[in-house]
Structures are given as C-alpha cells and as structure tokens.
Amino acid sequence: MAVLEITQLCLKNVAADDPALLENLSAVREKLHTSSQFYNCIEDPKLIYILGIWPNLEAHLKFLESPARDEVLGPQEDMLQFCWTVHVEIDGLHLLPLEAPILAMERLRFKEECIENLGRAVTSYAQQLRSNHTFKVAHGWRCDAPGTHEALIFTGWETAQTHVTLTANVDNDHDVAVLQDRSETVQIIRGRNLERNDG
Fold it and tell me: Could you give the CA distance from residue 23 to residue 3 in angstroms, rounded to a whole number?
C-alpha cells in the first residue's frame, strides 16, 4: 500500500515566503517523484511540513539509507533543519483536502491495542467532521512505529478558526466517546500551502 510521508522541518536563516526555499523544495520533489506538497504552520511559522507519497514504506527507507539521500537533500541543509517524519497508510494525495485554504492534521495516539471499535470511532469522527464542511476528510494509520497505534485525520478548512470552532463542537456520540476515552491528541497541525496564494 502507498504511504504518505509527513516530515516536519524548521526554517534556518530563511523566511517561508523566500522564493529560493520553494525552488529548493520543488527541485527535491522533481527528483524524488513524490508529488510533494509544502505547508507552512500557522501557529509556528518557523515550521514547514512536507507531504509526499511513496509506493510503500520500504521505498522511502531505502532512499534514506542510500548515497542519493545526501546528493538530493544536501542543498536543503542551509535552509532547513530536520525535526521528524511519520508515515501513514493512505492510497494517494488525491484523497487529502489539498484544495482547501487550510489543511489540518490531527494526530491521535491510542492507549491500547487497535481493535475494531477504535477504527470505527476514527471513521465516525471523520464523518462528523465531513458533515460540517465541503472539503474532503481523510484518515489513516501510522505504519512506521511498531507497537504504537496512531491515527492521523486530515481535514480542509476555509480558516484556522473554523477548524478550532467546529472540532470543539463535534457530537459526542458513542463512537466519538470511545475515541476520546481511548486516545490522546498528540498534535494538531494547521498549515497553508506554500505554493498557493489564497490568503
């Protein structure tokens, strides 16, 4: 199954709107053929998120262990500092709400082993979010950390404030109550696409 790579990078000596940064990121995307999208964090503008698709987890890990890694990623070192990467099972970028002005990513970690009703709870939560707006909603399970049960939910919004308001008012039905009882929010990320200019 295809996997979505989400990498957090921190800006070094460059602003998020510097054309040289986008040139650099685009050059890497072209070499890796990952169809990557680049997002600037709203709450912390020093952070950049790269979302790219790989055929499978092994393909990305193989690249990271290869000599090509330094050749391809080396030019970024003066601009960006690596923070972390997670991989999520998702069939393609087309499933994500990339057309939205704001992309929100929620990371939920479960306190016990994944069982069927937890999957149903994540799906129910995603469906409730979908009913509140017109953008796509997608979710998937993290696949690169054995023993960790983490779901990521991707939603699109007109503004960051809309996301804050509507997610706070999700109906607390049985499935969502199960989700809240058995998970903790690791992180909520809201970002704007660096290649778009829609405010």
Answer: 25
Span 100-130, pLDDT tens digits = 999 999 998 876 655 456 667 666 776 776 6
Q: What predicted TM-score, i.e. pTM, was given to this entire model?
A: 0.86
| Amino acid of residue 27 | A
Residue 56, classified by CB atoms within 10 Å of its CB into exposed (0-12), middle (13-18) or buried (19+), is middle
- Beta sheet of 3-11, edge-to-edge order: 80-89, 3-11, 47-54, 37-41, 183-193, 102-110, 150-157, 137-141
Q: Tell me the CB-side half-sphere exposure of residue 125, using CA atoms within 13 A.
A: 27
